[in-house]
Design goal:
The chain is mainly beta. 6% of the residues lie in helices and 68% in strands. The protein contains one helix and eleven strands. The protein is globular, with a radius of gyration of 18 Å.
């Protein structure tokens, strides 16, 4: 048990960017649902809802709806997916009292690769986004590296550590968009449902935001 905790702490520590010491930091809350419907042995339907708040709850930052059609191959180790997302953002103006609503429609393509190294489960996700933000068109690349490490014994493998780092890169000037670092603990309710809660830091060029994430994963 102690060895697993040390491994998890080391991984999370290595993932924390040095530049995360920023000028500003605020604490918010994200409620996330991620679902996956298996259509047959290869095809799957992805569905996702994220309700993001500037504070604990009630001050909407973003509502994100995402879906996509994926194809799994290589003994369920790889998945390619074509997806669509709608994002409603409530952005504060410079006076920090008034907000403006921003609508975004997003098309994205992604590739996921999974592997195991000892007790550690790794996931690589490469995503390319085409973003229609009001009247602007933008493109962005994202790379996600995630770790899951079981806490309980193999025959009762319910609790686990979870950590990830995801970097966002624009295809135009100001290439760096943001970086996300996350660490949390998850629990398998059964083979189809798991819950996860943890801390995430989202670092921008000159500021950062801290989030408490509550995530539900459902396979059906």
């Amino acid at each position: 048990m102690k060895k697993k905790i040390k491994i998890a702490a080391l991984i999370i520590g290595l993932m924390l960017p040095i530049s995360a010491q920023s000028q500003d930091s605020n604490f918010g809350n994200w409620l996330i649902y991620i679902g996956n419907k298996k259509l047959n042995s290869n095809w799957n339907l992805h569905n996702e809802v994220q309700y993001r708040n500037y504070n604990a709850i009630g001050d909407l930052e973003q509502l994100l709806l995402r879906t996509g059609l994926g194809y799994t191959f290589n003994e369920d180790k790889n998945n390619v997916l074509l997806g669509y997302g709608y994002i409603l953002s409530e952005n504060y103006l410079d006076n920090n009292t008034d907000q403006i609503s921003v609508n975004e429609h997003r098309i994205f393509q992604q590739f996921i690769s999974k592997q195991n190294i000892g007790i550690v489960s790794l996931q690589h996700r490469y995503r390319f986004e085409q973003r229609f933000v009001e009247s602007d068109f933008k493109m962005r690349l994202r790379y996600f590296l995630g770790f899951n490490i079981p806490i309980t014994k193999k025959e009762n493998n319910n609790l686990y550590f979870s950590a990830y780092n995801e970097i966002f890169l624009n295809t135009e000037s100001k290439v760096f968009d943001r970086n996300r670092v996350y660490g949390g603990i998850g629990y398998h309710i059964n083979e189809n449902i798991r819950l996860e809660a943890g801390y995430m830091n989202q670092f921008f060029e000159k500021s950062s935001r801290d989030q408490f994430n509550i995530i539900t994963f459902v396979n059906f």
